[in-house]
Amino acid sequence: MSKVLILSGAGISAESGISTFREADGLWEKHAIEDVCTAGCLDMNEEGTIKFYDARRVDIENKKPNYAHKVIVELKQKYPHDISILTQNVDDLFEKAGMKEDEIVHLHGYLRELRCRECDEIFDIAYQNQDSFAHECPSCGAKLRPNIVFFGEAAPKYQILTQELNSCKLIVIIGTSGNVLDVTYFAQLTDKSILNNLEPSNAIDDSYFTKVYYAKATEAIGEIAQYIEDFLENE
Ligand code: APR
After folding, report:
1. pLDDT digits (tens, 9 = 90+) for 53-101
2. What is the pTM of this model?
3. Do 29 and 115 reside in the same domain of the chain?
4. Is there a single domain that holds both residue 213 and residue 201?
5. Contact assessment for residue 48 and residue 36, using Cβ atoms and an 8 Å cutoff
6. One domain for residues 9 and 29
7. What residue owns the CA closest to ligand 1's atom 36?
8. H or E stretch covering 147
9. Ligand 1, pocket residues at CB < 6 Å
């Protein structure tokens, strides 16, 4: 458990060219959540759901981490025990910036992975299409699925989020509209809190945050990193 929790969302990868979900032209404007990201959609729309995540996987192959990812990776390397990194993002831009697998928690799953629908074994398939990897689980022969948490499904890694929220003293929220995770509530649980989005969100009450930056993550991250370092040095 750490003193500082950095929790990111789609906005941190926006400047790397990966679409957010709810902004104009975002993914949920072009695709119906109930078709491709809701519990049961693999039964109702298996081909369409798999195709949707195949396309997302191909899309991230050549995307590069931006300055915000890189600064956060450097902070984690400097304060490995004092900072925890949790992300709602399913892309691999933190990893491409040098974050090790065990240094980051993907709360909503990870695009590069497939999961067996029966035995739950996980397979890293990089940027391949699901069917190019295998039609069935190499271990038990059952059907595979993208390792993504759909709306209405359990998100087992939220347990880690709860534990981190209980211990952290500073929470840093970057690039999330707060429609899925109630970040206003999180800010009320911690001594200090930072919010960085492009603009205010109807799902966030920014008056609960110690510091608010409405700016691109790559522009705000320098000051945010300095705040985190000062906070940790004075703890
Ligand atoms: N820098 C900082 N913030 C940005 C930037 C940027 N360059 N670009 C966009 N943002 C902010 C927007 O202001 C918005 O508040 O990122 C946020 C994106 O919000 P959403 O599209 O709702 O993404 P997110 O909050 O991560 O979605 C949460 O919803 O569909 C599910 O599982 C999916 O993990 C996802 C979850």
Report:
1. 999 999 999 999 999 999 999 999 999 999 999 999 999 999 999 999 9
2. 0.97
3. yes
4. yes
5. yes
6. no
7. 180
8. strand 144-148
9. 9-11, 14-15, 20-23, 26, 88, 108, 175-177, 179-180, 196-199, 201, 216-217
